[in-house]
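Can't attach files on this board, so I'm pasting raw text. These are the components:
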Amino acid sequence: MFLWGTATAAYQIEGAAREDGRGASVWDTFAHEPGRTRNGHTGDVACDHYHRWREDVALMAGLGVNAYRFSISWPRVRPQGAGEVNARGLDFYDRLVDALLAAGIQPVPTLFHWDLPQALEERGGWMDRDICEIFADYAAVVAARLADRVPLWITLNEPFVHMAYGYAMGLHAPGRALMTGALPAAHHQLLAHGRAVQALRAAGARQVALTNNCTPVWPASREEADLRAADAYDVLHNRLFNDPVLLGRYPDLSAYTPALDFVRDGDLDVISAPLDALGVNYYNPTRIAAPAGAGLPFQDAGITGHPTTAFGWPVVPDGLRELLTGLKARYGAALPPILITENGCSQQDVPAADGTVDDAARVDFLDRHIAAMRQAMAEGVDVRGYLVWSLLDNFEWAEGYEQRFGLVHVDFATQRRTPKRSYHWFREFLRAQETGQNTET
Ligand code: BGC
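---
Top answer:
Structure tokens for the assembled complex are below.
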């Protein structure tokens, strides 16, 4: 069955930040520090999904999706990161899983979508190797409760973005600006992923995946210096996180570090344990030029000539086809089936006087990206699902509530949910799949 669904993440929607024994996460800390997020917004309340989950499951049932990717809040399950298990936290996901299954929706949980327990950050966060075992232990605790009903698990969300924004540039929690010194945070995430794969399988999980953020990299010109810079960026953004998992080795990282002294014997065997799927999040390509000065071996040259989202991100549907066929060309038989675990766009959606939200540009975005995915499938890429980011407008990290990605509009003052035109469009699209009007996937 091809998975058609939506995706969310715990800190972006749940709220109830101090309820039922939940511990603090790095995002609670970061968002409460002055100047870290737009307008000082936090995820304290977010979409209040922790209380309104029944309504949100009903929205998905109405939409007709057969899959829902959500993330599990590590500090809700283990308030201190390790040690004590908070039964009320697990109960929440247990009820959610049952409600999804009752609605015919396959739950696809992600174990880590950036909300590290604050207590673990104080021990060094992802810079500390011990976290790999602690993560595997947390994975085992969650799977012991849910693996009987959850067929497919995702270990981590976008370790590249977490390393780059959280540890290298300090734009996301935990707000560290280590630049290339952040590379151990990549390795420890990958090793934790590998250890979690083992723990999940031992607990009976049938299928396990990792979600990477991938981008086609376009050199700004055919000049040698731009080609070299584009290659260096491709290594950092894409290959650093795909090669170890799929090929069991790191790409050449000499442009970033003289030695991988944080990698130990045997680590790559753990990291490259076979996966049932690779989760791919796609938003846009990246155009790269040679650096202007010293520092990083590349610079972002920006993309012009394409429409942009409210975030200013270029809309390039064919980039998804390019990305998928490129992954197949690069990894060949080592590439497992692909699941598009996120794709979507932000807009400044404002309800009209009659309450409707006409997000025509999002409809066009989704329609064209699905077509590009199908084109890649026609060219031989094995894609097994497509999940829209996101079900609801939500807490968009450093951008607070300014950027709206939902199929469903959320009025954050009242928590009123209003399905947008894109929701109605996706529902009709999914109906057409069922009735066989469109049998390509
Ligand atoms: C993340 C989401 C985020 C989305 C839009 C992805 O990088 O996984 O959490 O909201 O992009 O920025």
